[in-house]
Amino acid sequence: MSNAPLVLDAATVSQYLPHIDVLQEMRQLFVELGRAQAVQPAQTLTLFPDERGDFITYLGAAAGAGVFGAKLSPYLVQDGPPIITAWTVLMSMETGQPLMLCDAGQLTTERTAATTALAVDHLAKQDATTLAIIGTGAVAQAHWRQARALRQWEKVVVYSPRLSQSGDVQQIWRDLCPQVTFASSAEGAAEGADVVMLCTSSGTPVVDAAVIGTGTLVTSISTNVARAHEIDPAFLSAADVYCDYRQTTPTTAGEMQIAAQEHGWSADRVQGDLPGLAIAQCPTPSGTRPIFFRSIGLGLEDIAVAHALFRAASA
Fold it and tell me: Residue 222 has what pLDDT?
């Protein structure tokens, strides 16, 4: 086929990824979504028969870029650990033809981190100097890479349960962030921090919300665990709450579902989202409460970063 779509595996994606400014791609995406130049349907969960797993479909269409597509992320139950993959198909809005099929694993990690970083840029205090990162794996490392230039970080504190037993992981972090220090608990890392980034795959709270101070921004991401929540859902009632997209996140994010069912919280209390922040059409934090930002991952994020990959590979 003369116009066959590109097919990029994980190794090929890793070659092009350093040439992509993922944070800038997310900035532009949320401006377009705020201006109604992009469409973000709700993600869908499809269960496999006989409890053999499921897959999530992330859809999106971006008129400015002239592309649409979907990411499919399966969770395959095995006798051993489950298999989790992700692939994105990118299509042209002009011709209706497929442009690219790519492994989306690394792209998902980077776009997740860049989305969090964009929230930090919009919501964290301008004079923020102390950053806590809960989690030390690839997702946490990507969060640091994306957020490190956003403020003048004077103190970066990292924690994960097994970090003290892993000299290799500690060295990775020293190479990434020369000023890093390691905490003995999540609460020790978070106490006194201006920003706390939760970067784990946990389905239950990973830090005691009691240590979160006024004006501190807490960010949280999604995982495959049903109704996952990295912080106590009751925390939402005490915080200024933001999310990546208010039309879809409150009905999907675990702590928002639980807070609504058990703590009298309502999605109407979401202060704003990234599209609103991007075009200055929602309130900024009050400064009198902690701030909570929740992302669930949007199909448009996958489409935007896949389109950037397509441009890089085509060039």
Answer: 85
